[in-house]
Amino acid sequence: QVQVQESAGALLQTGESLRLSCNASGEKDFDLFALGWFRQAPGKAPEAIACINWKRDTTHYADSVKGRFTISVDSTSVTLALQMNDLKPADSAKYYCANDKSGGRCLTSYLEAWGQGTLVTVSS
């Protein structure tokens, strides 16, 4: 099990921004993993929202977040980040950083969560 430090969640207003981060400094193979983020709202199925392949040259976004969210990786700090802009109430969920075992194709069932997740709540 990869140990990570996750950024804090937040209670936000519609239209605000938040950057989530997931530091995996103990993971020596970090640069070899395709990585991603998925979210799960109460009573709903998990949704893969953003992924990046191990070469860091291809990203994939769910339609629900395309144009608003950006995934990024900082190999120096061993950190995966998700910049979330123009947040909406529908974005309210617990967010998980993950190892994308589908190699960056962002298949939900292949995303293996790291950490306990971060709660993001967006009010209207």
Q: Topology, please?
A:
Layout (H helix, E strand, L loop, with lengths): L4 E2 L3 E4 L4 E6 L11 E6 L6 E6 L6 E3 L7 E6 L4 E6 L8 E8 L10 E13 L1
Parallel strand pairs: 2-10
Antiparallel strand pairs: 1-3, 3-8, 4-5, 4-9, 5-6, 7-8, 9-10
Task: Give your account of this protein's structure.
It is a single chain. With about 120 residues, this protein is an all-beta fold. It has strands spanning about 5, 10-15, 20-25, 35-40, 45-50, 60, 70-75, 80-85, 95-100, 110-124. It has a six-stranded mixed beta sheet with strand order 2-10-9-4-5-6, with no helix packed on it. The radius of gyration is 13 Å and the shape is globular. The mean pLDDT is about 95.
Shape: globular
**Beta-strand percentage?**
over 45%
Total strands: the figure is 10
Distance between the termini: 37 Å
Features:
48% strand; four-stranded antiparallel sheet; mainly beta; 124 residues; 10 strands; six-stranded mixed sheet
Provide a compact summary of the structure:
This protein is mostly beta strands and about 120 residues long.
